[in-house]
């Protein structure tokens, strides 16, 4: 699928119950299903950082899913800031 010229990319940071509860896999699964690219990783302070790139409406949809979480995942705060898009990125990965 070719990227549209309206792709956006955001750096995000989530806090709350977001480590040890499958949060990274949750984000990766939903991002991949939405056709988004980027990455997600745990941080030493207990937060999770991510970069999400793709269609603005799909990025918004993913942010809603992240905020909703699930039975295990409880996001207390999620902040996003725009960053430069990464050309030729093809998938969403979990970084370790």
TrEMBL record:
Q: Which residues form the active site?
A: 24, 42
**Which intervals hold domain Acylphosphatase-like?**
9-96
- Catalytic activity annotation: an acyl phosphate + H2O = a carboxylate + phosphate + H(+)
Matching Gene3D superfamilies: 3.30.70.100
Checking InterPro entries in the record gives: Acylphosphatase (IPR020456), Acylphosphatase-like_dom (IPR001792), Acylphosphatase-like_dom_sf (IPR036046), Acylphosphatase_CS (IPR017968)
Task: State one Pfam family annotation.
Answer: Acylphosphatase
Q: What is its EC number?
A: 3.6.1.7
A Gene Ontology molecular-function term?
A: acylphosphatase activity
In the record, the note on similarity to other proteins reads: Belongs to the acylphosphatase family.
| Record-linked PANTHER family | ACYLPHOSPHATASE
This chain belongs to which protein, by name? acylphosphatase
């Amino acid at each position: 699928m070719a990227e549209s010229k309206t792709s956006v990319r955001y750096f995000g940071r989530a806090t709350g119950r977001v480590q040890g509860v499958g949060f990274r896999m949750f984000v990766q699964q939903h991002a991949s299903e939405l056709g988004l690219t980027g990455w997600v990783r745990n941080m030493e302070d207990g937060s999770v950082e991510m970069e999400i790139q793709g269609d603005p409406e799909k990025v918004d949809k993913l942010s809603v899913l992240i905020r909703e979480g699930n039975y295990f995942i409880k996001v207390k705060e999620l902040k996003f800031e725009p960053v430069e898009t990464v050309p030729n990125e093809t998938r969403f990965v979990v970084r370790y």
